[in-house]
Amino acid sequence: MGAAARPPAGTARPGVFVITGPSGVGKGTLIRLLRERVPELALSVSATTRQARPGETQGEHYHFLSDEEFARHVAAGDFVEWAEYSGRRYGTLREELERHTSGGRPVVLEIELQGARQVRETLPDAVQIFIRPPTEDALRDRLIGRGTDDAEQIERRLEVAQDELAAAGEFQHVVVNDRLDEAVDALAAIVRGTLGP
């Protein structure tokens, strides 16, 4: 499945950075600030079957696909990874990733735990980073504060988060998003340490 994403023999693959963690932990904010500090880092735009939230743009925030479109891409083997999360499907289209890496640009993927595990199999040299909240209460407060989910959805996300937090030990790097600046510093250090001067 990941063979098409491998570079020809004798060439170096630009850095591929996988950032995952529970819903509401602040992955999007951290990645936005990380890319301000490491401007050469491209963002891979994921595909999803969920509806766009207010302010989200097709092709910029996500590639919004119907269930049928997503299923066609799965059947054609077009995804580097895909997973179902909270009743919706999310995935990284191979062409989206290769659009960046074929030009020699490092790229960051913001994906869920299931997807991160698939990338570990298909792209074993990708750098995997897990973002965790300082406490479960802090995560609950963030989910409530962003105002995008009802109480039942928040409880479902928190149940999933418990399983995800238990998987943190699988990752090369774990960054605690307690103080935003410190978390971004830690992320930038990991990326810069991988890419070199």
Gap between N and C termini, in Å? 32 Å
CATH topology name? Rossmann fold
The CATH C-level name is Alpha Beta
Q: What amount of the residues lies in strands? A: 15-25%
Low-confidence stretches: 1-13
Number of domains: 1
- Any idea what the shape is? globular
What is the number of helices?
7
Keywords: ATP-binding, Coiled coil, Cytoplasm, Kinase, Nucleotide-binding, Transferase
Catalytic activity: GMP + ATP = GDP + ADP
Subcellular location: Cytoplasm
EC number: 2.7.4.8
Task: Tell me the layout of helices and strands.
Elements: E1 16-20, H1 27-37, E2 42-43, E3 47-48, E4 63-64, H2 67-76, E5 79-85, E6 88-93, H3 94-101, E7 107-110, H4 113-122, E8 127-132, H5 136-146, H6 151-166, E9 173-176, H7 180-195
Parallel strand pairs: 1-7, 1-8, 2-7, 3-4, 8-9
Antiparallel strand pairs: 3-6, 5-6
Binding site for ATP: 21-28
Catalytic activity: GMP + ATP = GDP + ADP
Subcellular location: Cytoplasm
Characteristic terms for this protein:
197 residues, Rossmann fold, 7 helices, globular, Guanylate_kin-like_dom, alpha/beta, 9 strands, GMP kinase activity, 4-stranded mixed β-sheet, nucleotide-binding, 5-stranded parallel β-sheet, EC 2.7.4.8
Short summary:
This is Guanylate kinase. Helix content is 42%, strand content 19%.
Description:
InterPro entries: GK/Ca_channel_bsu (IPR008145), Guanylate_kin-like_dom (IPR008144), Guanylate_kinase (IPR017665), Guanylate_kinase_CS (IPR020590), P-loop_NTPase (IPR027417). Its EC number is 2.7.4.8. The chain is α/β, with parallel strands linked by helices. It has a single domain, classed as 3-Layer(aba) Sandwich (Rossmann fold), CATH 3.40.50. It is 42% helix and 19% strand. The chain is built from seven helices and nine strands. The chain has helices spanning 27-37, 67-76, 94-101, 113-122, 136-146, 151-166, 180-195, and strands at residues 16-20, 42-43, 47-48, 63-64, 79-85, 88-93, 107-110, 127-132, 173-176. The protein has a five-stranded parallel sheet with strand order 2-7-1-8-9, sandwiched between helices. Strand 5 (79-85) and strand 6 form a beta hairpin. The longest helix has 16 residues, at 151-166. The radius of gyration is 16 Å and the shape is globular.
